[in-house]
Amino acid sequence: MDDQYLQKVLNGDAQSFSYFIKTYQNGAYAVAISIMKSEDKAKDVVQESFIQAYNSLSSFKKKSKFSTWLYRIVVNKSLRLLEKEKRYTLDEVSSVVSAQDRSNYNDAIIRLHQDELKQLIKSILTKMPPKEALMLQLFYLNELKVDEIVSILNFSKANVKILLHRARAHFYDIIRNEHHISSINDLL
Amino acid sequence: METQDELQNIFKNIESIYTEVDFEDAIMQKIKTQAKVKKQIAKNRKYGLLGVFITLILIVLFLELYDNPNLSADYRNPLIQLGMCSFILVNLFLQLETASGHSKQRIKNDS
After folding, report:
1. What b/e string do you get for A141-151 counting C-beta neighbours within 10 Å, with b at 16 or more?
2. ipTM score here?
3. Are residues A104 and A182 in the same domain?
4. By Cβ atoms counted within 10 A, which residue in A30, A83, A158, B70 is the most buried?
5. Hey, are the CB atoms on A110 and B22 less than 8 Å from each other?
6. Backbone φ/ψ region at A178: left (φ over 0), alpha (ψ -120 to 50), beta
7. Does residue A91 fall inside a structural domain?
8. Is there a single domain that holds both residue A110 and residue A158?
9. A108 & A177 share domain
10. Domain boundary residue, one of A37, A52, A84
11. Smallest CA–CA separation between B27 and chain A, in Å?
12. Chain A residues in contact with B34 (beta carbon < 8 A)
């Protein structure tokens, strides 16, 4: 389907580009917001990324999926903006949460209502360092494979796995340290 | 690996944690504006090149007339010389204006 619309846009039918916007806007927005942590900035990044994708569509070599290519543009733009604002930090995990505690947290999280669960995950991702939040977003929410994440981020496979591992550890660390996540504590 | 599966269990029922935003209108509008500006820039460039061409022709023509011994008496008249120079300067000014409009449009487009 992507190829068909891609050809139409390349043949001069600009309106066909709206197919790509409709299909990938939510994924791109989620990727941008997991890095930027601000809805307004994420919106700007997504708009700029789509415009850039439109302008350089002829250079898209179809070696990867359109979504992978688009997400790479979104990630690069977001990280560049973050570096410009000097907001990029890599927080250390205070201490590793034990397997038993993780299991308890998982049991409690699973029992949450959908809205509470969304709120909890949103709040955790907001508190996580950009690259780790991005890892969880891409791997679990956008459901991409490690290889696809590798091509989006241009990191080695080993690096992606390390970041993913650290992101998981951070996820539980935040649950443990954030006492205001009462919904979890009530269930424990 | 176990942890990964546990997290997958947690995340699997969630489609999106963020409120959906519709970007279609805003982006398509920007694309249309960009196309219009590009067209305008191409038009301005055409006018600019035409202006350069006319200026060159005028300079050659005026030099030729100035050097022509049969016409030199008339064309050495200071008023005519001033008129020629003014004509070329006005032409150059119009080209600069076009170029400045071109740059302004680019800046507007980029922002």
Report:
1. bbebeeebbbb
2. 0.77
3. yes
4. A30
5. no
6. beta
7. no
8. yes
9. yes
10. A84
11. 6
12. 51, 55
